[in-house]
């Protein structure tokens, strides 16, 4: 690399712009005096048009003096051969070869017919020597910065180069070993074997001293068929070896941790963790438990925010499948990237593809569960490809030629009416029946309002724990408002509203003015529009009290003291009401 830089030097890089020009009519005496006054030993003769006629040296003029010739003769009479010139753009090595060929030591440099400088053999040599010095310094720094240690020996085994890296590895200083025979320090060195065999030796494991490890390679260097040196590279792998041993010793711990994490995940996403005690949610959990044990495809319906992914994860967890649960939101992937995301791609499949290719979501879910959320948003062309994958149990990467066998259970979810989409032609009928082997329709929060207090308690506790907050008390009127709100966003909206309640609670109490504006506005509107179904005051009071007691008891996790405090009544009054209304499940 550095040697190529020498070839790139031009005459313009090294020429001397200090020069003496005299007209060819000038005489020798003038030339000698001019050279002495300018401390130069050459002079360039030009004609009236500034064209170079010759180059004369101080030595040439001294010959004239020794021959006792007339020093007043014109200098052009001394010219005996045609002048050879060069240009600034010419390579310096070419100029040197030109001078060597013509047995001359100088070349005038011409630009647009006029002389602008002169290049001498010494100029070229000085530049070369200077660059060699630079190369030597740079090479030393490069070798010392390498992670590998480098050693070079001559054919007799004398150490010519000993880098900082190898100095550190073997704890032998450069000053001690350079210029001495390697065998004095390392009698069994790999380099000595290479010198004897004249054959390369690669990747030999070696421990130069206790607790230190290296990988060594050595090769002979030949020029013109003759071995002139041998070089070894010693890569210190002590840190890697120690790390490998540490990893090996911690493998059992990692296995134990993996088992524990799996247990935690199973608990987190199990049916036991599905929130709710209402009859309708219990029924849906029972349906999901039954289908979990089969490999049948499941389609989960329901409004947005009803917990479709929670159910999908619980089904996967209960299925006992060994592979992972891989979720993909069909509405969040650009249509142009859908196929590569689902099926992956091979190296160079398209512009911008990773060099090593990429595994797709379907293949990633092998032996596990693929959850296709918002399946109704899958493009039609992808529906046909997805159907083929489900039928053939094989996936073909984009740009690939070999199909890959897969074992994937598919659970889909949507808030849209797929039957209507089939009728409209926006969803494939054959794929619909393939996905809809078992259908589970999750209820909205409006259909399970008795679960709101349970969600309220859980979400408040989780949010306060995450943010290091005290769990606040809840005013009974707040619970009543939450129970009557329609929750168009279902559980997701409820969770966001509860975070709002905690953030804006005052004196660690959640009051009516802590509610989000949309909930308060809906309550006011409902109060204006709602007409009682029955005008029986006693019946309305009874229903209201029963609903409020149920909500408070669920929110207090059946703790009667807490429930009484939430409703702002004595505990004795709560006991009386429970007995009066026959609410035995809370007694």
UniProtKB/TrEMBL annotation:
<keyword id="KW-0547">Nucleotide-binding</keyword>
<dbReference type="Pfam" id="PF00571">
    <property type="entry name" value="CBS"/>
</dbReference>
<dbReference type="GO" id="GO:0043565">
    <property type="term" value="F:sequence-specific DNA binding"/>
</dbReference>
<dbReference type="InterPro" id="IPR025944">
    <property type="entry name" value="Sigma_54_int_dom_CS"/>
</dbReference>
<dbReference type="InterPro" id="IPR000644">
    <property type="entry name" value="CBS_dom"/>
</dbReference>
<dbReference type="InterPro" id="IPR002078">
    <property type="entry name" value="Sigma_54_int"/>
</dbReference>
<dbReference type="GO" id="GO:0006355">
    <property type="term" value="P:regulation of DNA-templated transcription"/>
</dbReference>
<feature type="domain" description="CBS">
    <location>
        <begin position="79"/>
        <end position="134"/>
    </location>
</feature>
<feature type="coiled-coil region">
    <location>
        <begin position="240"/>
        <end position="267"/>
    </location>
</feature>
<dbReference type="InterPro" id="IPR046342">
    <property type="entry name" value="CBS_dom_sf"/>
</dbReference>
<keyword id="KW-0804">Transcription</keyword>
<dbReference type="InterPro" id="IPR058031">
    <property type="entry name" value="AAA_lid_NorR"/>
</dbReference>
<keyword id="KW-0175">Coiled coil</keyword>
<keyword id="KW-0067">ATP-binding</keyword>
<dbReference type="InterPro" id="IPR048106">
    <property type="entry name" value="PrdR-like"/>
</dbReference>
<feature type="domain" description="Sigma-54 factor interaction">
    <location>
        <begin position="274"/>
        <end position="503"/>
    </location>
</feature>
<dbReference type="InterPro" id="IPR003593">
    <property type="entry name" value="AAA+_ATPase"/>
</dbReference>
<dbReference type="InterPro" id="IPR000014">
    <property type="entry name" value="PAS"/>
</dbReference>
<dbReference type="InterPro" id="IPR035965">
    <property type="entry name" value="PAS-like_dom_sf"/>
</dbReference>
<dbReference type="InterPro" id="IPR002197">
    <property type="entry name" value="HTH_Fis"/>
</dbReference>
<dbReference type="Pfam" id="PF25601">
    <property type="entry name" value="AAA_lid_14"/>
</dbReference>
<keyword id="KW-0129">CBS domain</keyword>
<dbReference type="Pfam" id="PF00989">
    <property type="entry name" value="PAS"/>
</dbReference>
<dbReference type="InterPro" id="IPR009057">
    <property type="entry name" value="Homeodomain-like_sf"/>
</dbReference>
<dbReference type="Pfam" id="PF00158">
    <property type="entry name" value="Sigma54_activat"/>
</dbReference>
<dbReference type="Pfam" id="PF02954">
    <property type="entry name" value="HTH_8"/>
</dbReference>
<dbReference type="InterPro" id="IPR025662">
    <property type="entry name" value="Sigma_54_int_dom_ATP-bd_1"/>
</dbReference>
<dbReference type="GO" id="GO:0005524">
    <property type="term" value="F:ATP binding"/>
</dbReference>
<keyword id="KW-0805">Transcription regulation</keyword>
<keyword id="KW-0238">DNA-binding</keyword>
<feature type="domain" description="CBS">
    <location>
        <begin position="15"/>
        <end position="71"/>
    </location>
</feature>
<dbReference type="InterPro" id="IPR027417">
    <property type="entry name" value="P-loop_NTPase"/>
</dbReference>
<protein>
    <submittedName>
        <fullName>Transcriptional regulator containing PAS, AAA-type ATPase, and DNA-binding Fis domains</fullName>
    </submittedName>
</protein>
<feature type="domain" description="PAS">
    <location>
        <begin position="135"/>
        <end position="186"/>
    </location>
</feature>
<dbReference type="InterPro" id="IPR013767">
    <property type="entry name" value="PAS_fold"/>
</dbReference>
């Amino acid at each position: 690399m550095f040697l190529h830089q020498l070839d790139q030097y031009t005459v313009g890089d090294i020429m001397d712009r200090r020069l003496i020009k005299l007209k060819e009519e000038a005489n020798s005496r003038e030339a000698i005096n001019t050279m002495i006054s300018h401390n130069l030993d050459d002079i360039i003769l030009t004609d009236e048009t500034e064209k170079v006629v010759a180059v004369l040296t101080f030595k040439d003029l001294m010959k004239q003096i020794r021959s006792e010739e007339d020093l007043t003769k014109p200098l052009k009479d001394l010219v005996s051969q045609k002048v050879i010139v060069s240009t600034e753009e010419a390579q310096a090595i070419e100029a040197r070869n030109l001078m060597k060929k013509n047995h001359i030591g100088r070349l005038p440099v011409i630009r647009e017919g006029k002389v602008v400088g002169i290049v001498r053999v010494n100029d070229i040599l000085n530049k070369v020597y200077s660059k060699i010095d630079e190369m030597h310094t740079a090479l030393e720094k490069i070798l010392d910065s390498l992670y590998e240690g480098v050693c070079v020996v001559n054919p007799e085994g004398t150490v010519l180069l000993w880098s900082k890296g190898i100095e550190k590895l073997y704890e032998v200083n450069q000053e001690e070993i350079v210029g001495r025979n390697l065998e004095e320090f390392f009698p069994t060195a790999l380099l000595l074997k290479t010198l004897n065999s004249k054959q390369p030796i690669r990747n030999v494991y070696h421990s130069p001293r206790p607790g230190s490890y290296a990988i060594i390679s050595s090769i002979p260097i030949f020029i013109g068929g003759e071995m002139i040196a041998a070089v070894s590279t010693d890569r210190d792998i002590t840190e890697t070896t120690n790390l490998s041993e540490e990893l090996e010793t911690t493998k059992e711990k990692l296995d134990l941790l993996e088992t524990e994490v799996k247990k935690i995940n199973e608990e987190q996403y199990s049916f036991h963790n599905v929130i709710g005690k209402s009859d309708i949610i219990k029924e849906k959990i029972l349906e999901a438990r039954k289908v979990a044990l089969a490999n049948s495809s499941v389609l989960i319906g329901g409004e947005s925010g009803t917990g479709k992914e929670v159910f999908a994860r619980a089904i996967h967890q209960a299925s006992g499948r060994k592979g992972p649960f891989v979720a993909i939101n069909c509405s969040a992937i650009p249509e142009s990237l859908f196929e590569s995301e689902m099926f992956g791609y091979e190296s160079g499949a398209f512009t911008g593809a990773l060099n090593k290719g990429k595994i797709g979501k379907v293949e990633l879910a092998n032996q596990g569960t693929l959850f296709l959320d918002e399946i109704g948003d899958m493009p039609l062309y992808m529906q046909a490809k997805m159907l083929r994958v489900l039928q053939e149990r094989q996936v073909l990467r984009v740009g690939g030629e070999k199909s890959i066998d897969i074992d994937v259970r598919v659970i889909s979810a949507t808030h849209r009416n797929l039957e209507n989409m089939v009728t409209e032609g926006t969803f494939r009928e054959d794929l619909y029946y393939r996905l809809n082997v078992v259908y589970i329709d999750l209820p909205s929060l409006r259909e399970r309002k008795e679960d709101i207090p349970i969600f309220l308690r859980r979400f408040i506790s989780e949010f306060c724990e995450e943010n290091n907050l005290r769990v606040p008390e809840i005013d009974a009127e707040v619970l009543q408002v939450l129970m009557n709100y329609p929750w168009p966003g279902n559980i997701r909206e409820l969770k966001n509203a509860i975070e709002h309640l905690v953030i804006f609670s005052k004196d660690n109490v959640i009051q009516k003015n802590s509610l989000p504006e949309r909930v308060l506005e809906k309550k006011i509107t409902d109060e204006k529009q709602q007409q009682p179904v029955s005008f029986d005051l006693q019946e309305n009071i009874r229903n209201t009290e029963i609903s409020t007691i149920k909500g408070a008891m669920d929110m207090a996790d059946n703790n009667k003291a807490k429930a009484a405090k939430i409703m702002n009544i004595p505990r004795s009054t709560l006991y009386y009401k429970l007995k009066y209304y026959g609410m035995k499940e809370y007694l």
